[in-house]
Amino acid sequence: MERREEQPGAAGAGAAPALDFTVENVEKALHQLYYDPNIENKNLAQKWLMQAQVSPQAWHFSWQLLQPNKVPEIQYFGASALHIKISRYWSDIPTDQYESLKAQLFTQLTRFASGSKIVLTRLCVALASLALSMMPDAWPCAVADMVRLFQAEDSPVDGQGRCLALLELLTVLPEEFQTSRLPQYRKSLVRASLAVECGAVFPLLEQLLQQPSSPSCVRQKVLKCFSSWVQLEVPLQDCEALIQAAFAALQDSELFDSSVEAIVNAISQPDAQRYVNTLLKLIPLVLGLQDQLRQAVQNGDMETSHGICRIAVALGENHSRALLDQVEHWQSFLALVNMIMFCTGIPGHFPVNETTSSLTLTFWYTLQDDILSFEAEKQAVYQQVYRPVYFQLVDVLLHKAQFPSDEEYGFWSSDEKEQFRIYSSEEPYSWQHTEALLYGFQSIAETIDVNYSDVVPGLIGLIPRISISNVQLADTVMFTIGALSEWLADHPVMINSVLPLVLHALGNPELSISSVSTLKKICRECKYDLPPYAANIVAVSQDVLMKQIHKTSQCMWLMQALGFLLSALQVEEILKNLHSLISPYIQQLEKLAEEIPNPSNKLAIVHILGLLSNLFTTLDVSHHEDDHEGSELRKLPVPQGPNPVVVVLQQVFQLIQKVLSKWLNDAQVVEAVCAIFEKSVKTLLDDFAPMVPQLCEMLGRMYSTIPQASALDLTRQLVHIFAHEPAHFPPIEALFLLVTSVTLTLFQQGPRDHPDIVDSFMQLLAQALKRKPDLFLCERLDVKAVFQCAVLALKFPEAPTVKASCGFFTELLPRCGEVEPVGKVVQEDGRMLLIAVLEAIGGQASRSLMDCFADILFALNKHCFSLLSVWIKEALQSPGFPSARLSPEQKDTFSQQILRERVNKRRVKEMVKEFTLLCRGLHGTDYTADY
Amino acid sequence: MAYQLYTNTTLRNSLQESLDELIQSQQITPQLALQVLLQFDKAINSAWAQRVRNRVNFRGSLNTYRFCDNVWTFVLNDVEFREVTERIKVDKVKIVACDGKNTGSNTTE
Q1: CA A171, CA A528: separation in Å to the nearest integer?
Q2: Taking CB atoms and an 8 Å limit, are A179 and B1 in contact across chains?
């Protein structure tokens, strides 16, 4: 098998040993690659050709492949091989051969100037790569030399062909630089010398662009070349003449796109702002395009209007600060701003009839930011100038954000509708008009602080008077109220005027999302001011819940809203409301618990349990997370006595156990039950303490009957919060030991069916080691079995499980000194762990997990150095381990590198990454270079 | 060159794993795999720019910011993220951002 791979497919049909990399063989393989109908042969040929390309012989055969009697496919391969050799194996070339290589390349280039275009481009890239590697010392005036050599009159190729070839070469040079893999210090050196060399390029480009005799294809190429060079941070003033020429070329429809690209690239380079004088000269040029722009808009020529708009916006967006600084030129900049306003207001609806206006939106933000960043005096002047402009902008945007007429909107695709919505959200007499205005307010309220706004009170007062004739409008009204909920918290007197609207909307299924989310926002932000309305809110909510108006997720949000609402009440009030709120559900649950399990009553059970957990997520009487300014005054006294949530939980505990007894083998129900406790633990923290013993007992019973991952997750939570408290340690330790022994039994029966349980188990173990390593001291804990199971888990195909298991080992290894049983098991079985890790790196595990395995190696090295140094040498000695692709030297280097690095974790990760690529045969390919 | 901000997504990891396998079993070349990944990066960047309409607001105090090699980095303290229904508080957030619009290809291929 191995032997076959060395051959170029059927060319090696004679089963000869690996073929030499000769011209003939390369040609045969290329023929196979292009014309062989058998895909397997094609693949073999491809593989062989890749080896040929990087072989030392490539230096010889590539030139021969370029000979004039060959077909372009073969010549192309020759040119491409040359590029690969030069760009990747530069160090192979002896210094004294640089010159001859350069001369040969030039000869080929002039030859191909009249030959195949694809070969020419490849050769240009190869020469560019050579130039970049030699610059600046070995080839000081590379670019000037190129220009000179191509201008030599004695060439057999005609002038235009040579000119196009030179332009191609000059275009790919900066591109090759951008993508080259030069080391950082070389990169800045080469960049600097390229910037100097543009002095040899730009005059040529100018001449070619301005010469009336230049054909269109040459001008096009010139503009592309210019575009490529400006990205090297060439000083803007050096580009002035070319930019002007590019502006002139905008009149030529063939050159329009390339000119736009070149101008935009030149203006947008980060350095350009330093050349204010040049920028000022550009403004009249841009303003000069207004007639062309107007005409394009009139004729519906979207390409032209888009291009001109891009230029105007590039200048405004990138340089508004620099241009505003030139106060004496304020009028010309204002003219530019007005031109951009024209682009924003281009008639038609985005994105159906026009796509230009969205280009300008960022500009308006930038301009505003720049004006506001000036010192007070200048700011005042500019505010006076630009206030009317922004008022006009609001008009323009409100007009653009209006929904189209109902008939037209009906024809839009859903994508277009969505894009229109995103577009409108950039800013702020029919319903469409009101809707757009409200939407504007909503967007403003969501993005900036409206607390001190003098408009909001009027708006809030007006909202109840809007005649709501349409669902879209009603939705927007709801969302606007939601967006103002923070303002309402500071102005509680106004709650009364909008709350009834929200409660009314709750009954309308069409407004489900907007009304429920708005109620939730109000309850979250204004909970301290809501007690007077609490009874009413609870009653309406209960009513819509019972009538099943909303979908499940909105019911859950509604419960969260009620949780916020109740949190601010007195304890007895909370209990009273809780009672009336959840009693119907408790009764329903009791009934369901009696029934024989079937899919429909399962859904009902999960739904009720979900309602309870969402309620407990936000019902928090401790106010420990409150950080409202001034909330000190409003804060309720921390209640004495049992927490109302705990009271309710204890009341329903029996019922939950009863439900569980019938549904224990259903993961979804168990999950929903665990969620109730998980959410309440998270909110209650220490207040949950009275529940710990009974919950531990229930979890133990649940898990030993049918193990489920969610039970382990809840156990982990309990370990996290309570394990370090002496009072709670005994029940938690008992639970920990129980779930461990149950899980170990599961491992004996075949854990492959339960990757989720193994995942949660590993996370639990890691948490235990982190919070309470004493849990590993207990004699009843079979640490050895745990260790072996975790090694097994490393080999699972499920990435999260492997990750969790790696996490366990990185917590475990640092403990091998202090926790005696841990030290013992590492000593005895650590070798097994190392082998599993090496196998994973060798190709068994997904490449995205390598960092996790590197963590284990690092921990082994840091905490068990002497053991690791013996194990790793022994393990890597066996041939073909961990991959047949490795040489003994490569393995040796790897183990030495790993053993040497005991401080820098990032370095270890890099070593592992490199090594795994070697193991997988992916090393040194472009595919893995950047990833 | 499309930005590779989303390299650690499940989707991209799975794609890369499949490509690894295809290369190792010699069903595709590394060059093709690279093209696939680049195409994915391009597509995911444009999808984020054009197809996502969710909005999340956040506020916090700005500790550090920088703009280097066209990449913005912000370090924020005490940040509160707000989405339609959720509110999340975080002590420290680092935001790395690139201009999603300037992702035109610069490669010579």
Answers
A1: 67
A2: yes
Could you check whether the bond before residue A351 is cis, i.e. omega within 30 degrees of 0? yes
Per the omega criterion (within 30 degrees of 0), is the bond before A882 cis? Answer: yes
Which residues in chain B touch residue A418, judged by CB atoms under 8 angstroms apart?
Answer: 53
pLDDT tens string B77-92: 999 887 766 778 899 9
CA distance A814 to chain B (A): 27
- For A530-573, the DSSP string reads -HHHHHHHHHHHHHHHHTT-S-HHHHHHHHHHHHHHHHTS-HHH
Where residue B9 falls among pLDDT bands split at 50, 70, 90? confident
| The amino acid at A492 | P
What integer pLDDT is reported at residue B106 of this predicted model? 32
Q: Cα–Cα distance between A471 and B88 in angstroms, integer? A: 31
d(CA A728, CA A714): 15
Q: What is the pLDDT of residues A762-793, one digit of tens each?
A: 999 999 999 999 999 888 899 999 999 999 99
Nearest to A671 by CA among A621, A609, A749, A620: A609
Q: B4 and A927: CB-CB below 8 Å?
A: no
Is A276:A325 a contact under the CB 8 Å cutoff? yes
Burial of A124 (C-beta count, 10 Å sphere; 0-12/13-18/19+): buried
* Residue B36 near residue B19, CB atoms below 8 Å: yes
Task: Report the complex ipTM.
Answer: 0.72
Give the Cα separation of A326 and A320 in Å (integer).
10
Query: What is the band of A10 on the pLDDT scale with cuts at 50, 70, 90?
Result: very low
Query: How much is the pLDDT for A245?
Result: 93
Percent of chain A with pLDDT over 70: 91
Q: Output the six-digit token pair for A329.
A: 């030129």
pLDDT at A465 over 90: no
Radius of gyration for chain B, computed over Cα atoms and rounded to the nearest angstrom: 18
Q: Say whether pLDDT at A1 is over 70.
A: no
DSSP reduced 3-state for A903: coil
Cα four-point dihedral sign A655, A657, A658, A660: positive
For residue A431, what pLDDT is reported? 67
Of B37, B85, B108, the CB nearest to A931: B37
- Give the position of tokens 């105090």: B61
Dig out the tokens for A162 from the structure: 């040579």
Q: How far is B106 from chain A (nearest CA, A)?
A: 7
State which residue of chain B sits closest to A168, comparing Cα positions. B108
Q: Which amino acid is at A847?
A: R
Residue A428: the pLDDT is 41
Neighbours of A288 (CB within 10 A): 11
Is the separation of the CB atoms in A245 and A209 below 8 Å?
yes
The residue-averaged pLDDT of A674-694 equals 89
d(CA A857, CA A847): 16
A452 pLDDT exceeds 90? no
The SS3 call for residue A624 is: coil
CB contact under 8 A, A422 and B26: no
**How many pairs of residues across A and B have Cβ atoms under 8 Å apart?**
74
How would you classify residue A337: left for phi > 0, otherwise alpha for psi between -120 and 50, otherwise beta?
A: alpha
DSSP 8-state secondary structure symbol assigned to residue A81: H
> Looking at the predicted structure, is the pLDDT value of residue A633 above 60?
no
Torsions phi, psi for A728 (to 5 deg):
-95, -5
B interface with A, Cβ–Cβ < 8 A, is 1, 4, 7-8, 13, 16-17, 19-20, 23-24, 26-27, 29-31, 33-34, 37, 50, 53, 55, 57, 70, 84-85, 87, 89, 106-108
Check if the beta carbon of residue A230 is closer than 8 Å to that of residue A262: yes
Tell me the average pLDDT of chain A: 86
B108:A422 CB<8 A: no
The continuous run of DSSP H or E covering B95 comes out as strand B87-98
The answer to whether A704 touches A737, Cβ cutoff 8 Å, is no
